[in-house]
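Hey, resending since the last one bounced:
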Amino acid sequence: MNIELLVVPDCPHAGPAAELLRRALVSIGLDGTAFTTRVISDAREAEAAGFTGSPSFMIDGRDLFAEPGRTPFRGLAPPAADLPPRGILPTTGLSKHQHGRKP
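The structure tokens again:
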């Protein structure tokens, strides 16, 4: 399972999003699982990654919070969007992948 946190340069949410992702992994028993933080620095990279906003939580190239019809992120300025509300962990997609993994 390839877990990535995608962010724009100087994203003010990068640190809190990484902590949120770490807590989500721990909450479903994947506390030893590594993830990478990847900085998306241009439109071509955003298009290739399916990046729709910063931060984006990706598992095996799929955005955990993808919205149907949303196009890849074009602007690379720091984001206006906030993180999920306090207490909401990005575990939905993680749990699906956890159950499908081989021991």
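The first helix runs from residue 14 to 27.

Sorry for the duplicate.
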